[in-house]
Design goal:
- With 251 residues, the protein is α/β, with parallel strands linked by helices.
- It has two domains: 132 residues, 3-Layer(aba) Sandwich (Rossmann fold), CATH 3.40.50; 95 residues, Winged helix-like DNA-binding domain superfamily/Winged helix DNA-binding domain (Arc Repressor Mutant, subunit A, Orthogonal Bundle), CATH 1.10.10.
- It is built from eight helices and twelve strands.
- The strands form three sheets. The chain has a five-stranded parallel sheet with strand order 2-1-3-4-5, with helices on both faces.
- Helix 4 links the parallel strand 4 and strand 5.
Length: 251
Amino acid sequence: MAPVSMGFLTALEDDTIGLVAEPKTRILVVDDDPLVRSLLEDLLGDAGYAVKAVGSAFQARGALARWAPQLVILDRGLPDVEGAEFIKEIRADKESAPLPVLFLTARGKPAEKTEGLEAGGDDYVAKPFDAGELLARVQALLRRASAPKVEPHRLSAHGLSVDLDRHEASIHGKPVHLPPKEFELLAVFVEKPGRVLSRRFLLERVWGEGMDLSMNTKTVDVAIGRLRTALGKLGERIVAVQSYGYRFDLD
């Protein structure tokens, strides 16, 4: 297949079609531009995915409920709800919360990427996009989502209980409600108590290996600030190590 350039899609070479999905993996595309929807239907369909493309958050709600996608590609400039707000709806629903969500949007400034990731996005790709890169990121997100689960385990210390499989946390039996990224940060800290973890390590571990890490590591600081607040007094045990990162003192 020859390279394609239509403003949104910058390249598609023969070898990108080698990125073939498992049969019937379902991807929901939410974008108000019919050209983008058509391009993604062709690109993802040729790669072996089942694709449903809709133009609004209203339509996406129905597709999430009835079609049960395994990954969502989401634009930020929707006609009825801003994409960074709509993803909060996705994360707030028990059924859709675990879904990997990839932002695909013309809003590609570093601050806008940070905003999208902090809202709950798993990855962020700016338009115009490279077809091969998009397919690779889709596959990476699906691999992470389908990774074999380890045996259930729960970590406890100082009244803090963290169930790493059920994604539940509590302090002295009282539930602590955490957004996905803050929970993943807490999980990393309780798995490595007392160790100093760099901001870059946390960014890679929580926001995804292979992601565009040129964004400001302020992303980590903001999320940890929210985690500290949610943990209350126990949050004071997350100690900043100047010019490096953070340590969780549980001893």
